[in-house]
Design brief:
Elements (H helix, E strand, L loop, with lengths): L1 H13 L2 H16 L4 H24 L21 H6 L7 E2 L6 H13 L2 H10 L9 E5 L4 H12 L3 E5 L8 H9 L4 E2 L6 H12 L10 E4 L3 H9 L10 E3 L2 H13 L6 E3 L4 H24 L7 E5 L3 H12 L3 E5 L3 H9 L3 E2 L2 H4 L5 E4 L9 H5 L5 E5 L9 H7 L2 E6 L2 E5 L5 E5 L5 H4 L6 H20 L8 E2 L3 H10 L13 H7 L16 H26 L13 H6 L1
Length: 569
Amino acid sequence: MVCFLVSLFYFLHKGSFLTMGVMIMIMITSHNAQRSRVYYRARRTSKVFIYLFFYCNSRVLFTRTASAASSQLHIPAQPPYPYYKTIMAAPAENYKVADIGLAAFGRKELDIAEQEMPGLMALREQYGASKPLSGARIAGCLHMTIQTGVLIETLTALGAEVTWSSCNIFSTQDHAAAAIAAAGIPVFAWKGETEEEYIWCIEQQLKSFKDGQSLNMILDDGGDLTALVHEKYPEMLNDCRGISEETTTGVHHLYKMMKEGHLRVPAINVNDSVTKSKFDNLYGCRESLIDGIKRATDVMIAGKVAVVAGYGDVGKGCSAALRGMGARVLVTEVDPINALQAACEGFEVTSMEEACSLGNIFVTTTGCRDIITGEHFANMKDDAIVCNIGHFDIEIDVAWLKANASSVSNIKPQVDRYLMPSGRHIILLAEGRLVNLGCATGHPSFVMSMSFTNQVLAQIELWMNPGKYEIGVFMLPKNLDEEVARLHLKKLGVKLSKLSDVQSKYLGIPAEGPFKSDHYRDWSGLCLCFDLIFVLGWVFVQHIRFFSHRRFPFGFTSQQAPESFVSKI
């Protein structure tokens, strides 16, 4: 009975038929066996594996322990930047933006964006009176755009005190930063920061809470703020209730920190919520990539050969966008499943070594480093356009390009034309950083409403339930994921069908949802490892019983095993 209950519990949560089958098999063999010494030893052994398996998989229900290949940002204890010596001595009072005079323009765009962000506006209406974030001091490091401005004002409307910096040196919209600063929120961001200024801005926001208090919540995009606080200001984490992380790269950092034992507070992985990754990463990039390329180059995409490195959610959106504009799209991938998906969508899948001499436009989407290197640059066509839509600038070897180019000319902001020794030219957009934010204004407001609604819910969850989460990386429950989607349907005129009682019972799910299981993102690899451990345990038990009774384990009796052999066991 215990075996059955354990198997049923795990089956309902993870849908593991392997687990169900194995555990029922143990029940059958245990039931058919007689009470011999071997039987009791086998029974005890099987119990050990059951308990071990149940414990491990109950942990899997709440945390994901996969590691990531990307490296953690390193912030030196004593920054070697001269900029620190001239500015860090006197912290800014409450903000630093490019031009506070742009605030009125920014406010007009904020008003328009609110109409396109129904999820955030619904949260203001639902929680504005109760203010669930009252007492929260949120340090946010996320692209300072108009859409982010709506997020910031939603957090403050729910009771939080907020300070802000941008997570990319080129992504800030100066009128958005000015509008938020004019609203009395400490913000340190402007378009075109240097690397030194970028770190300075993050540090200034940490010092800008009222009465000299420290942060107690982190809202991050890319992991820079999280890494800096962990490495340079660990004392700030003593009262910190948690982190919510926006993007794939930052999530990779969190899992790596957790694996290495460096993570000190609970974190919620917002990126892998379905209403974030399947919409922001895919549909957002599908629109904003083309916007960035067009604004930067005015090139006609139709008829060109476009090379997309990576076919994850971002790569899927970029590939679809380029094909929709009439380009012939080549995809490069390391993952056989993603490569097969690309092939089944009709894209040609090849290696970068082959594609580099064929492409007119190159887009990196992987979140990994060294995707386009010097070897690839040397073989590109004249005036090949190279850009990145992954979070950091490590996907393209910009350092090699700068070191080996004969000369470089700046065509306009974020558009540089490099002359190679071969006489050919390479056009690099946004210095290898996010092209959709460096050369355009990023994703549309509507799709960002989905991502940011998840962020607000994650902040509320962590703040309101401080004892619920141990140190680790967690996901928002599926019912909240579906609620985020539901909040955005009316804006699009969508009418949902409703399950009847008969249909609900037939499917075995509530009529109101959730309709997807918690493992909808298909993190089955880790669970399969525990399944295999359990199978090996079962094989071990049956191995003992088979050789002790000299028969296949079903239907034997203890009298059929020689006494001398049993006594040796």
